[in-house]
Amino acid sequence: MKCQYCGGDISLQDQICPHCGRVQEKAVRYEEEMQRFEEAFEDTRQEVLSRSVSNTRGIAIRLIVIVALIIASIWCAAHADSWSVRNARRTREANSSREAFTQRIEEYLDAGDYMGLSSFSEYYDLMSNDHYRKYYAVLWAVSDYSRIYKSVAAVVYADPDKAAKDGLSYEINRIAQSLKNYYENAVPGKYSWDERIDQEKAAEVIGRLDGDISALMAAHLGISQEEADSLRSLSDGTRTLIIEEAVHAKIR
User: Fold this and answer.
1) Bridge-partner residues for 2, per DSSP?
2) Domain map of the chain by residue range?
3) CA-to-CA distance for 108 and 122, rounded, in angstroms?
4) In the prediction, which pLDDT does 42 show?
5) Contact present, 96 and 129 (Cβ < 8 Å)
6) What is the value of pTM for the model shown?
7) 3-class SS at 123?
8) What is the mean pLDDT of the chain?
């Protein structure tokens, strides 16, 4: 999920945002709710298990399952309602602040802050909002770029013991898949059938993103600049092999 203040990636267990340091009320409430649910579940489990009659074992198991399902249902319902309300509020904000949001998108693009734009777009679900249709191709591209960036970061900051043990095979596949998605989606003119989309802006941004991805791969994975510049034109298998060799050389 996202920090409600800075939009940074956090988990539901993060009561303090690691990016901006602000308390996450949702995470605090979640922890309190789960504590109450766990206590209720444990009380019920102990009561059931205390029964000594042998033919109650099947009933005990069913009761535990039922209690667990009730707890899960309550949790899911509470969070589904919270999610719906939050998203509706964000959509209203995006609809009522179109001029300000458009200006902010342009500022992100001018600054080359594609990670920031991706987080902003995801937070307000701008890709599903027709008011921002002109940026649809751009938002798709920066979203895929964000996944590439995070996948590379997972390798760069991987635990040395884990890297030595399994060679970071999962992370390698994530990078390769993220690149595949980007090169399939980020194609100038792909959405030419939709006159609302700004094709010129999309082509400009994609060109810059290609250069950033090339630099990212060369600087952080150790891929040669020539290979990094040719990634778009390579087959999926060749691309994966290049990444795998670079990562393994990096962790040796």
Assistant:
1) 9
2) 25-94, 98-251
3) 14
4) 58
5) no
6) 0.66
7) helix
8) 82
